[in-house]
From TrEMBL, chain A:
Residues 119-134 have a biased composition (Polar residues). WD repeats lie at residues 330-365, 466-498. Substrate-specific adapter of the anaphase promoting complex/cyclosome (APC/C) complex that confers substrate specificity by binding to substrates and targeting them to the APC/C complex for ubiquitination and degradation. Recognizes and binds the destruction box (D box) on protein substrates. Involved in the metaphase/anaphase transition of cell cycle. Is regulated by MAD2L1: in metaphase the MAD2L1-CDC20-APC/C ternary complex is inactive and in anaphase the CDC20-APC/C binary complex is active in degrading substrates. Component of a complex with CDC20, CDC27, SPATC1 and TUBG1. Interacts with NEUROD2. Interacts with dimeric MAD2L1 in its closed conformation form. Interacts with BUB1B. The phosphorylated form interacts with APC/C. Interacts with NINL. May interact with MAD2L2. Interacts with CDK5RAP2. Interacts with SIRT2. Interacts with isoform 1 of NEK2. Interacts with HSF1 (via phosphorylated form); this interaction occurs in mitosis in a MAD2L1-dependent manner and prevents PLK1-stimulated degradation of HSF1 by blocking the recruitment of the SCF(BTRC) ubiquitin ligase complex. PROSITE patterns: WD_REPEATS_2, WD_REPEATS_REGION. This is Cell division cycle protein 20 homolog. It comes from Drosophila lebanonensis.
TrEMBL record, chain B:
Keywords: Cell cycle, Cell division, Mitosis, Nucleus. The gene is LOC115632364. It comes from the Eukaryota. This is Mitotic spindle assembly checkpoint protein MAD2A. It is found in: Nucleus. Its main location: nucleus. Pfam families: HORMA (PF02301). One of its GO terms (cellular component) is nucleoplasm. Transmembrane segments: none annotated. It comes from Drosophila lebanonensis (Fruit fly). Belongs to the MAD2 family.
């Protein structure tokens, strides 16, 4: 594409003071006409293509506008005074292909002398000629390598006459929601009062802003574990005591934290690919279970079984009681597994990965671990899936939320593998939780508002937006009584939201629901 | 002697062209959807490469792509294409906003013949499709860094062929497009054993 322009521009520039050529081809004229037709434009194009097209792969720079506009200035004949901002232009030598540029300039010279061949010539010229032709094939190869395609003369660009239609005039790009900052819409008042400000804010310095990690969990004993940088801390939500559980050595860090259903055992997945078990009442490491070749970014407990999902794409079930801890390994993902949840009745395991897949695994026939082939493979998400939640009152309903390119919360019936509902949340979905006290769902989001949104389920009517985080909300956990949600944001704060406080009038009803839920779990464990 | 082997798993030049055209069809449709060029309601889900890909339902777009890709396949089977560009332009100002380049490189395959028209590759189809799947995922992931196309857009497909190519009816020769102040990001490559395909997105930096 722009390589062609580059080459032809260069040729034009060099020929300008030489002999005059015939009129330019029609397409070239058209192109120039459409480009404001000024000499300046072609010039700037020349300098820009140096920076971009020949540099091969070039990740977007942080201040992209600057470097290239400066490059334009550089090519101007009379450099004006330094731009107001005082930014210096620092040429990126690594991105400029000097060999090629030098060759192209020399090649022109060589060709010109070729043309003069027919005319009377002197000795010097002849010598040049021999050299030029001797290196010609070599040079041709060089340019082909550098530009990937031959000279602009060597190829034709064809297009089909009947063009595809433009989008309808009424169309606005749906991605606008991803890019534009809107002030939060005044939230619809639901059927109950939900405090929209956080009850408490805790500092979380060095909280790792990584979408693929799960760095916080809240235990049944009311202890919040959180990984900050290379350390793991325990915060007692009842007393407010803080205790450091462990600190990793330089370079290593905790990637996922998960509490056992009941008790003080914390599983930590670390950056070396091991799963550690800690007894937090004694601040003592009980065992280390290896098996993964890359960091462990997600963990899920099912009584004595801990399932770990890793960057290597595998999920391993570890039996924490036995010496041979590895029960089975699941290879259903090709990229990092960043979401892992056992269903509330422990019959299914849901996993979400960076390969945009949601896999649902059913319990193995022997009751330990899961089958090695996924029961369902949901491919509908268009981005990494990290947010997973199982509905506490409908054990076969799974909610999943996709990343920036997707932004949808989808509900699945895992019995028959069908999509129940899909809602566009208009923002990256980082975490999902179902309330136990209400038939509601809370979702954590990133850009633009970094809010937590409470939805009525199954109608998915927005109940409330909880704003306060100044950067995306990475993780959520619920208190053991189900009344409070803690959210961890990339703004290095933990915020507590008292958003599911039971309604005193409905307390009776809730109590009966809870006891029912407990009963079913009990029945499950006997099986 | 090699017949038993050859029939087992063998991609010919024609087959390779088919695989690439199939990728181009899914890739371009995915670009049209992911970049929000056409309304999302004009797209339908399809399952391919183990992914859900959204394909345009618009009969005109479908027809356009079908015609373009039919010709592409023919040329590809003769190794006459250097590059295919999917160009996204502002429908009103005709300014080029984004350009997706699919660069072809012919490969020798691993068959036993030296006849350039009878090259074969024994690369496993599922392996090729897995490679394509990774590129497709990257295409949908570009949303997070490409600038917003906040205008009515249209797209065109330009095919860079050899100089010797005859221009078929209903086709035109055109000039190269370029994007001032452009950034290029190369996505993953895949190969059928006979064609190697690089996908590169060039986009205009927002000033």
């Amino acid at each position: 594409m722009s390589q062609f322009n580059f080459v032809s521009d260069l040729q034009n520039a060099l020929i300008m003071d030489g002999e005059t050529r015939g009129p330019a081809p029609r397409w070239k004229k058209k192109l120039e006409a459409s480009l404001n037709g000024s000499a300046n434009t072609t010039r700037s194009v020349l300098s820009v293509s140096y920076n971009t097209s020949f540099s091969g792969v070039q990740p977007p720079t942080k201040t992209p506008g600057k470097s290239s506009s400066d490059a334009k200035k550089k090519s101007a004949t009379t450099p004006s005074k330094t731009p107001g901002g005082g930014d210096r232009f620092i040429p990126n030598r690594a991105a400029t292909n000097f060999d090629l540029a030098h060759f192209l300039v020399k090649k022109e010279a060589g060709e010109n002398s070729d043309e003069e061949n027919g005319q009377p010539k002197n000795g010097d010229n002849n010598v040049n000629n021999v050299q030029a032709s001797a290196h010609k094939s070599e040079r041709q190869k060089l340019i082909a390598d550098a530009a990937q395609v031959g000279d602009s003369k060597g190829s034709r660009i064809l297009c089909y006459q009947n063009k595809a239609p433009a989008a309808p005039e009424s169309h606005t790009n749906p991605l606008k929601v991803v890019y534009s900052i809107k002030t939060p819409i005044s939230t619809k008042s639901g059927t109950r009062y939900i405090p929209t400000t956080s009850e408490r804010i805790l500092d979380a310095p060095d909280f790792v802003n990584d979408y693929y990690l799960n760095l916080m969990d809240w235990s049944a004993d009311n202890i919040v574990s959180v990984a900050l940088g290379s350390c793991v801390y325990l915060w007692n939500a009842g007393s407010g005591n803080i205790e450091q559980l462990t600190e990793y050595e330089e370079g290593d860090y905790a990637c996922s934290l998960s509490w056992i259903q009941d008790g003080q055992i914390l599983a930590i997945g670390n950056s070396t690919g091991a799963v550690e078990l800690w007894d937090c009442s004694k601040v003592k490491r009980l065992r280390v279970m290896d098996g993964h070749s890359a960091r462990v970014g997600s963990l899920a407990w099912n009584s004595f079984l801990v399932s770990s999902g890793s960057r290597d794409g595998t999920i391993i079930h570890h039996d924490v009681r036995s010496r041979e801890h590895k029960v089975s390994s699941l290879a259903g993902h090709t990229q990092e597994v960043c979401g892992l949840k056992w269903s509330t009745d422990f019959k299914y395991l849901a996993s979400g990965g960076n390969d945009n897949l949601v896999n649902v695994w059913s319990l193995a026939s022997n009751g330990v671990g899961t089958a090695t082939e996924p029961l369902h493979k949901f491919t509908e998400h268009q981005a990494a899936v990290r947010a997973l939640a199982w509905c506490p009152w409908q054990p076969n309903v799974l909610a999943s939320g996709g990343g920036t390119a997707d932004r949808c919360i989808k509900f699945w019936n895992v019995c028959n593998g069908s999509l129940i509902k899909s809602v566009d949340s208009k923002s990256q979905v980082c975490a999902l939780l179902f309330s136990r006290n209400y038939k509601e769902l809370i979702s954590a989001h990133g850009f633009a508002n970094n809010q937590l949104t409470i939805w009525k389920y199954p109608s998915m009517v927005k109940q409330s937006d909880l704003t306060g985080h100044t950067s995306r909300v990475l993780q959520m956990a619920m208190s053991p009584d189900g009344s409070t949600v803690i959210s961890a944001g990339a703004d290095e704060t933990l915020r507590l939201w008292n958003c599911f406080a039971p309604d005193p009038l409905a307390a009776k009803k809730v109590a009966s629901v809870n006891s029912k839920a407990k009963q079913s779990v009990f029945r499950q464990s006997i099986r | 002697m090699s017949t038993a082997q050859a029939t087992k798993n063998c991609i010919t030049l024609k087959g390779s062209a088919q695989i690439i055209v199939e990728y181009l069809n899914y890739g371009i449709n995915s670009i049209l959807f992911q970049r929000g060029i056409y309304p999302a309601e004009n797209f339908d889900n399809t399952q391919q490469y183990g992914l859900t890909i959204l394909m345009s339902k618009d009969p005109k777009i479908k027809e356009f792509l079908q015609n373009v890709l039919k010709q592409t396949e023919e040329w590809l089977a003769k190794n006459m294409i250097n590059k295919i560009s999917c160009v996204i332009t502002n429908a009103h100002t005709k300014e080029v906003l984004e350009c997706w380049d699919f660069k072809m490189q012919a490969e020798m395959g691993d068959g036993e013949t030296n006849d350039p028209t009878k090259l074969t590759s024994s690369k496993d189809l599922t392996r090729i499709q897995n490679e394509i799947r990774d590129v497709m995922r990257q295409i949908s992931a570009t949303v997070s860094y490409l600038p917003l196309l906040d205008c009515i857009c249209t797209f065109d497909v330009m095919i860079h062929t050899l100089q010797s190519t005859e221009i078929p009816t209903e086709w035109n020769e055109t000039g190269a497009v370029f994007i001032p102040n452009a950034q290029a990001v190369q996505l993953r490559s895949f190969s059928t054993g006979l064609h190697k395909l690089d996908t590169v997105v060039n986009y205009k930096m927002s000033s």
